[in-house]
Amino acid sequence: SSWQNYTFLIGKVTQEFKIVLEVTLSHDYPAHLALDNILLKNCFPDPPQNVCSSTQFQCANSACIDATKVCDINIDCEGGEDESAAQECDKVMSFARCTFEDGWCGWHNDPKNYLNWTQNNGSTPTASTGPSFDHTYQNSTGMYLYVDMTGKQLDMGTASDLESPIIDCPPPYHSNVSSPYYNSCYITFHYHKHGPHSGSLGLFLIEMQRNTNVTTKVWWSFGTKGNKWFRQVVRLPNITAK
MAM domain location, by residue (predicted)? Predict the structure, then answer.
C-alpha cells in the first residue's frame, strides 16, 4: 500500500464555510482509512493590518502595545524597538528610568525615617518573604530595592520613604485641558509584596509650593499580593509646582 495525494479546487465561495472529510462504511472490509498533511492554500484573505489606537505604540511587526510600555526598561516588541534609541529612551533622565543595577539613580531614603530601603539581589534574608530574583533580569544577580520589616521592634504605622530627586514642574500644556498632553505624566514601576506582614505600599505626590508642601496620595496597595512581581501604571494628577 502507499499514500495517495489528492488536490481539489474548492471554487468560488462568497460566505463563511467549512470542510468535512467523511468516511462511509462499505462492504469491502476489513479496511482502514488514514489522513495526513491536510493543506488549504490560497483560501484566506490577507490578514488586516493592525491599526493602533492613540494610546498604543505600533511595533515593527504591526503588533500594538500600550504606550506606557515604551521606554519602560522592559522589551515588549518582538524586535525591541519600544526600548530603542529611535524612541529616545537613551535621553530619559537616569532617575526616571532606573533598574538599580548601577546604584540608586538619585532616589534616596528619607533621613528622618528609622526604617530604610536597602539594595539587594537574590532572595531577601527572611524565608517566605520578598522576591527571590529581580524583575529586570529575572535572576538572582539583578538588583532591586526592598524594605525588611522582620526582626525589628516596629510600631504600627512605621514608614519607610523612598524619595525621588526634586523634579521641575511639567510644561504648561500638562495642565491645559484642551491639550492632548493634559495630565500625560505617569509613573510605572514593578512591586513585590509577599509575606504575612508585608504592610502597605503608597505613592505620594509632594508639590513644593512657596509657603508649604502639598501632599497627594495617588495610589495605594495593602496586604500581601503573592510571590510574584506586579506592574503598576499610575497617571499623576495636575502638577503645578516642583
Answer: 1-45, 96-242
